[in-house]
Amino acid sequence: MKAVQFRQCGDPSAVLSASDLEKPVPRAGEVLVRILATPVNPSDLMFIRGRYTVPAQCPATPGFEGVGIVEVSGGGLRGRLFLNRRVVVLNRKGGNWAEYAVVPATEVIPISRHLSVEQAATFFVNPATAWVMTREVLRVPQGDWLVQSAAGSALGRMIIRLGKSVGFKTFNIVRREALANELRQLGADHVEVFDEKCNTSEELLAAIKKVTHADGTGFAIDAVGGATGSAIVHSLRQRGRMLAYGTLSNEPLVFSPRVLMTTGSSVEGFWLGSFMANVSLPFKLRFVQRLTKLIGSGVLGTEIAGSYSLDQITEAVKASEDSTVSGKVLLRVS
Question: Residue 214: pLDDT above 90?
Fold first, then answer.
């Protein structure tokens, strides 16, 4: 089979290449999936750079998300039930940037035939994260504000649409004015342009308090860290909560423990893989039904910027990191 690999961590456009490998064989409790399509997500690029939660065991094949057809079961009831079905492939160790992937049967979920291959391939990471963070973990009430950094990302845009759909308001932080205009047209309640090189944390903190008309925000999510994430921590009101789910700046959060002590606020880490590993199969099946409806209605749908073959991996990762490209980059495998 053909697969994308890297033999050492580094710049994705420099270290990735397509190679011919032996097709893997599933063991008991595993399934062999023929991959149809798989997205290029920020988590994949961090994995390649050696900055992700899961360390790469080189040579390694990236790809945590995708859609495919279960072709072989290594044994077990669940594997037999999923045989020949189209499934979402949640590959926690990576490996979906290939023609075939072997994963535990517990990491594949049947997906509606009514969704396109593109929407099925991007079904989980962003849509599920948007829903779980805001509705399952934070449970942002109707009419309340949610502060989010990296609001111009595919996930950030989903959260704006989700807020409009279920009734919470979004305070959205971006780095460029061009993005701000796009998000306002999308329905963002407020967009704040904040560049750590040009603005101070105090300015961002003041803007959050002014717009939310309160002593701070009760709910926040941060994918950036550094000065941006630290300013959001300082904006939390009494018993406010922030989920840290990314490290785009590669800089730590910096704040005094007294910031949390005096308000009773909290900062929690969030990783979708850990959340999904601790919920039941009935929850997952109900969850998939809910996401399918929200994706079909456009609330949690993914804009696709372009599709590339495995042989075009260099062009694909460059496009995924091009700030002028709007939407998700896909690898069309089969």
Answer: no
Q: What is the pLDDT of residues 314-327, one digit of tens each?
A: 999 999 988 777 78
Identify the residue whose tokens are 């509606």. 112
- Alpha carbons 223 and 307: distance in angstroms, whole number: 26
The C-alpha atoms of residue 156 and residue 79 are separated, in whole angstroms, by 35
Kindly report the CA angle at 42 between 174 and 204, in degrees rounded to 5?
20
Point out the catalytic residue in the list 52, 100, 245, 308: 52
> What is the rounded average pLDDT of the residues 124-131?
92
Average pLDDT over residues 197-207: 78
Q: Is 2 helix (H, G, I), strand (E, B) or coil?
A: strand
Which amino acid does the sequence have at 48?
A: I
| Whole-number Å distance between alpha carbons of 166 and 163 | 5
Instruction: Tell me the pLDDT tens digit for each residue of 252-276.
Output: 999 999 999 989 999 999 988 888 8
- Quote the tokens at residue 42: 């920020």
> In sequence order, what DSSP letters do the residues of 172-238 get, joined into one string?
EEES-HHHHHHHHHHT-SEEEE--TTTS-HHHHHHHHHHHHTSSSEEEEEES-BHHHHHHHHHTEEE
Residue 88: helix, strand or coil by DSSP? strand
Percent of the chain with pLDDT over 90: 64
User: The pTM is what?
Assistant: 0.85
Structural domains for the chain: 2-122+302-332 (3.90.180.10), 127-271 (3.40.50.720)
308 is catalytic: no
Give the residue among 36, 28, 94, 89 at the shortest CA–CA distance from 63: 94
CA distance 175 to 195: 5
Three-state SS at 72: strand
